[in-house]
Each structure stands twice: as C-alpha cells, then as structure tokens.
Amino acid sequence: MSLKTDVHLPINPSDDPLRLTGRRLPRWAPAASMVAGLVIGILLLVTGVKILGLTWWVVALLAFLLIYGGWTLSVEGRRHATDRIATAAVYLTAAAAIIPLAWILITVITKGISVINLEFLTSTMRNVNPRAEGGGILHAVVGTLTQVGIATLISVPIGICTAIYLSEYGRGRLARSINFFVDVMTGIPSIIAGMFIFTFWILTLGFPQSGLAAGLALSILMIPVVIKSAEEMLKIVPNELREGALALGIPKYKVIIKIVIPTAISGIITGVMLAVARVTGETAPLLLTTFLAQDVNWNAFEGSQASLPTFIWDQIARGTQSSLDRAWGGAFALIFLVLIFYSAARILAAIYAPRER
Amino acid sequence: MSAPVHEPQLHPGITSERSVRPGDRNFRFLTTGAGITVLIVLAAIAAFLIWKSIPALQNNTGSLLTNQQWLPDADPPSWGISVLIFGTLWTSILAMVIAVPIGIGTALFIAFYAPRRLSKGLGFIVDLLAAVPSIIFGLWGLYNFMPYLVPFAEWLSTYLGWIPIFTNNVDLYTKSILIAGVVLALMILPTVSAISREVFLQVPRSHIEASLALGATRWEMIRMSVFPFSRPGMISAAMLGLGRALGETIAVALILSAVFEINWKLTEPGGNSIAANIALKWGEAGDNGRSALIATGLVLFFITLVVNMTARWVVNRRKDFSGAN
Predict the structure, then answer these.
(1) Of the partner residues B52, B101, B133, the one whose CB lies closest to the CB of residue A309
(2) What domain range is B102 assigned to?
C-alpha cells in the first residue's frame, strides 16, 4: 500500500493503470443484496402482487441473486461474478439439505410429545378400537429391541470376523471379491432382504413368522455396514504394533485378538452402534417376515411380533385421527431410539477415536 | 505344509517358518469362513428369489413385459412388470436429478466453503439425515410436506404445462410422482453428499493450492482442479444414490397413490414402484401372488445389483491410481 502511494498519487485509485488488484465489492455487499431481495419479496407479500405466480420468498431469492450477480458483474467482471453466484448457490444447497432435517425433527417432536406419556409407553394396542384414544407402544418397543438385538448378535461376530479377514489376512482374488461384494451388499434394498428370509427361512425351511426371522432379515442389512466400519478401524491400527508383537514371537492370532482388536475396539463399537441405528428404523423387511401384532410377544421364536416401524405403518393405514396421533407418538419414540444409538456412537467415536499419524 | 526334509536347518531350535500353529490355522479358517459366508448369502439371495419366482412366471397368461395388469391371484393369472419398472425408474431418476446437484453442493460447502468447525457439525447433520427412518420420511412427507408441494405442482402445471411431463389433466396434485421424487431426493441426499465429500477430500492439496496461486477464483479452482479429479467419484455417488432410491419402499408406498398404469405426468396422482407394490400387496397376496411379487423383487435385486456394481467398479478403479496418498 505504502509502496503504491510513494510512486505516484492518482486522483482516482480505480483509474490507476498500475493497480495490482481488481476492483472489489465492499464486504457488506452480500448482506446488502440480501436485504434488497428481502425488501422486494416482502413488498410483494404486502401488496399481494405475484410475478409469474411465485411465492414471495422465491421472488426474494431470485431478486437477491439478480441484484448480487448484476452488481458484482458490473464492478468485478465476469469471473468474479461467476464465483460469487456459485458461492451463493453452494450456500443455498447446504441450506436445502439442513432445512428438511430440522423440519422433520421439529414436526416429530412437537406432534409426538403431546402423545407420549407413561400410559402410552406402558400399554399395548390389544382391544383398542382404531377410533378410540389410548393404547400404547409397549409391544412395539419390546419387538424392536428383540429383533434389533437378534440382528446385532448375528451380525457382529460375522461382521467383525470378515473385517479381520479383509484387513489382516485377505490377499488375492478371494479377498478382493469379498471386499467388492460387501460394498455391493450395502446397497441391497431392504425389502429384498425381507423377501429372501421369507423364501428361505419361512417357505423353504418351514419356520413360523417370528421375531427371529425379522432379526435375520435385519442382520443381512447390518452385516455389510459392520464389516465396512470395522475394516476401516482395523486398517488405522499402526503396523508397528503388529510387527513389534510378531517380532516378540507372539502367534498372529494372538496379536490380532490381544493387540489389534483392543486398539481398534472403540471404533468398532461405534460402527456397530451406527449399524444398529440404521436397522432400527427399517420397516419393509419386517412387514414380510413378522406380521403386525397388537400385543406383547416375548417369544422371539414363534408368532408375529410388533415393532415400532410396523406399528407406525399400521396406525397410518387405519387412517383415523387418534390412530394418526399414535403414529406420531410411535415416530417420536422411534426417532428418539435411533438418535440415542446414533449419538452414543458419535460420542464414543469422539472420545476414543484412534489418532491418525 | 511341512518344510521339505532335505532343506538344511540353519538354526536348529527355531521352528521353521512354514509350520503353522493350530491356533493360527483355526483363526484364519474362522475369519475366512465368515468372509465366504457373506458371498454365500449374496448368492443364496439370488438363488432363492429365482427359485421361488418360477411358479408365477410359468403360469402367467399375460406377457411379462407388456401386460399392464396385476392379477396374479386371478384364474388364469395375468400380470406384467412394465408398470412397476417404469414407476421405479421414473421416481428414482427424478430423485436423482434433484438430489445430485444439492448433494454435491452440500459436499462442496462442507469441503471448501464452510469454516472448519461448522463443516464438522454439518457433516454430522447430513449423516443424521441418513439415520432418519424411511417410515418417518413417509409420514412427514404425506402429512406435512405434501401440502407445501401441492402449490409448487400447481405452479409447474400452470406455467410449464406446455412441457408434456408437467401437464395435469385431472386437476388433482396430491400423491404424485413429483412428491414421491422430492421426498426420495431428501432420502438419498446424505448418500450422494457423503461420497462426494469423501472424493473431494482426496483431491491433492497441491492441485488446489497451485490453481489458487495462479489466481483462480474459488469456483474456478473447483471447476478446474476438483471436478476433473473427482468426476468418477461423483458419478458413482450419483449411482449409489440411484441404487438407494430404486429400493426405497415405505416412503414411496405411503406417498404414491399406487395406480397400476404407466403415466409420464409428474404432477398427477398415481405411480407405483416395485418395492412399494411388494409392501402394499404382500399381506393380501395368495401363493401365486407372492411368487409374482418375488419375481418383481428379483428384477429389483438385479437392477440395484447392476447399478451398485457399476458404481463400486468406477470408485475402485479410481482408487488404484489416484495420486491422493
């Protein structure tokens, strides 16, 4: 700055041919354009005039983009105008991703909180008329916890063993194809998992519809998620630990069990919790493997069993106001459960995350 | 697996490296077995779906591909799959068209625009969107979101009605493919965003710094050094999102009004999808009906398999020779 003024003193800085930087908009330009856009939008809202039938906030947004874009184009030139419009667009997309989430959470909480009370949590839908008030979700909570528990019991050993194979032993063709198909398996539609368990477990092997069948279907969705997260965690474990232990003459399997897994265990637990959170909300496979039930079924091996997602599905289908209220209550309980698993996973991850080097 | 006898033992007392401890062998056997189980499950899914769909395929009197009816339990059974495939693809493609720009934009925001602290929190929030169960998306979409989308659908048909897909001849705007597509877009947004973010973070720091040092604006930096590097990753993010949308069941089943006909018009009530049809028809279906539903499930399974395999193949091929690490 001082250098420039020392050499010569142009009367108007923007006329200076030796200027190093181009002309820029003032720092308050985005805010000012935003206010201008808002003013236009609110004017339209107040006067009731509609341009092309658009709502006031859409007009405000478009006006902002036009004012901002035009201003920067006239002052800074085409390149910077593109940059600024792109920045605005990127901010808008981020908002478009967050607003629905906030909207969903607020809706579920406000609609659900008025339904949730001790009676709702401790009673079932047995002998409750769809039109009547009352009833509860105890049977559904019991079912969801049983089915998710079974799914966890099945998928955690298989998932972690596969992850160990992939990260500690897997070389060559078999490992590559397992790796590839695990990735592919994460994309299997959940209803296909339910359909497979129906054809295999119920039609072919002749077992009854049960919570166990639902747990099996959920485990098909859960296994690939557990494998991917556990494998990632095992790969972060520094190789020096393995080499040091092997150099001391410890057998490889003991190195894995006593050194590699304990180092990665927090991350593995986090992955398992995330997988649990993911399958807790699955509805489609449950519809095919364990039908709707209105009462508590403690026996996971026989008879249909309710669950929170199918409870919501059932209540929506009944279509009365009180059943819709119950659906929102169930949604609140379900999202609460999912969020508990999810936040527990994130907190564990934040506390125990192995430091990358 | 013992060492050859004639090999000279240089260090007597140290076991030959070829001998394997039983514990090691068992453990390796166990973990390999778990890995193979995964492959077997995937193969079994295909095998059982094929096997159980054969009866309905054999006694179907209509043409599988052109018949636009769903009467598998009638006598004689007559059903076709074209309506379902059309509805599945049409809703999913719409969802992808909406979700891919927004997802990539969100990923760009997290990777390059947001302050460091905010970007971490935002990544958390986008992941949270993935954890919201689909039944809740359906419930919210049907009772809270649809009333706000109906005016938009009306606007589309009023001002853009000259484009055939936006025409609305029935003057009803609820429960349309448009609404299902928008809700689906929200559901696949986290997938698209998370994978794009991952590939954006793999772009070599040096490329980014070089372009900025040459005087590029941030957008030029993204367009010239981030996008070329991460294009395969973005394509597969879009395809994985598509795969998710194809198989989405409950939200679509709740929102669409499940009409069994091919209708291109986005804003009219109607539409159907393979997965939603299975969820809606399963309870009332007889033996042959279930077999027919399994046949449609088989088609869905193979469509998603192809989409996912292509996406993964693109990602993995890239991983091998990326200069990121």
Answers:
(1) B133
(2) 82-320
